[in-house]
Amino acid sequence: MSEENKHKMNQSFRDSIATVTQKGDRIWIYPKKPRGKFYNARILFSSVLLLLLYGLPFVKVNGNPLILLNILDRKIILFGAPFGPHDFHLFVIAMILIIISIFLFTVVYGRIFCGWLCPQTVFMEMVYRKIEYLIEGDAYKQRALSKMKWNGEKIFKKSFKHGIFFAIAFVTSNIFLSYIIGIDELSKIIQAPVSEHLTGFTAILIFSTVFYYVFAFFREQACLMVCPYGRLQGVMLDEDSVVISYDHVRGEPRGVSKKENSTLGDCVDCNQCVQVCPTGIDIRNGTQLECVNCTACIDACDEVMDKVDKPRGLIRYASLNEIEKGVRSLLTSRSIGYTVVLIILFGILTILMSVRGNFELSIFRTPGMMYQQYDSLHVSNLYDFVLINKTFDTIPARLELDGIDGEIKVIGSNLIAEPHGTIEAKFLVIIKDSDIKELNTPISIVVKTNGKNIDEIKTSFLGRIEKFRKKKK
Ligand code: SF4
Ligand code: SF4
Known about the structure:
Elements: H1 3-9, H2 37-55, E1 60-61, E2 64-65, E3 67-70, E4 75-78, E5 81-83, H3 88-109, H4 112-116, H5 119-136, H6 139-147, H7 152-181, H8 183-191, H9 198-218, H10 221-226, H11 228-231, H12 233-236, E6 243-246, H13 248-251, H14 272-275, H15 296-307, E7 315-318, H16 320-325, H17 333-354, E8 359-365, E9 372-373, E10 378-389, E11 395-402, E12 407-411, E13 416-417, E14 422-432, E15 440-449, E16 452-462, H18 465-472
Antiparallel strand pairs: 1-2, 3-4, 4-5, 6-7, 8-10, 9-10, 10-14, 11-13, 11-15, 12-14, 15-16
Helix pairs in contact: 3-17, 5-7, 7-8, 7-9
The structure holds iron/sulfur cluster (SF4) (2 copies).
One iron/sulfur cluster binds next to helix 15.
């Protein structure tokens, strides 16, 4: 059996995960510090993401937060635009759009989201792991420190590291909270004595502890055991998906040979790609559920290839078909299907967003009600009025009749809509009987706020039936 076929037959690595022993004990991963062009690009990209995450709560548009996700109070602001419960349909479409985009990107580009965008990877590899390298050193020093008996150095390094880890978790929890309650509310809470916000403070401490635990201890287990997206890879990827792949055609049979005319492949079996892997896998075994596409093995292997004077890219972004048949096909039936659905949904969302005004208004004659004889000269009709205010302002509304003499009398409440509030009211339209010339008279009602027309609703006014019966005779 050829070396390549032996490799294909040996699939035992799929029976267990690299971070757990046969007995079920955790194997702690000490990945070597990555370096290279992909790692540098990821540092840059992650810095932008972190800057946005920590900076956005401080950005305001006309005195309101740029982004606010206060689901409890049903107050949501996205890029300065207010949204409320009445926009639920937009959120549903947006959610479907996001999910399909992730599917599309996964079908075409594999787990690119995990490596570059996922908060778990960004915080783990670009924040927590970096601090660890800074305090404890590279992988072999970390391993040595862990094996070391507790002494002054170990106590200092470990407590210093975990202190910083918890501080980051605490700050980040507060930042997350500011996305929910707004930065102004958060700074009020911070400035007030803890005793006044004991429940909130306890909640923040719990959240910070979970956050700290995930990045200090749980780490890659979140991707391997908890993340549902990782679990779905098996059904989303196919032979044309571009993932981080080892070029087994070029690399196998692996090994080092000093002989001239060696039949060995380009892989020198140096294990560098395994040593940098934060999930502890060997990418040479093929695409695996544990691979979070962090690119560390690409950089490690490229460095080795430079040293042995072979072309870079033994590990690279490539599809299985590209490696085995030399064909890169991004336009598969699945990717086309997802793209079409994505374009349609995006079109619907754009149209709905562009026709979305600041108010939603409806006026209609109260169902089941006939005309009323208001007094000896006037006739009235009862109407229902609903106004949804989608702005941050309090809206005092005023109703006026247009094109016909008459009066509008609001029953009960005054017409004031709170920010994101709804007015539901009833009103009477009173018109002189002599001015009504037909049974169903078309009328216009203008809705004004602060002297400005915000809408004009056309409806009808029902006259006295007896009057028009007589006319017919
Ligand atoms: S196999 Fe490579 S890309 Fe995948 S997690 Fe390991 S180092 Fe990152
Ligand atoms: S880093 Fe490259 S050469 Fe070294 S073992 Fe991995 S694939 Fe082979």
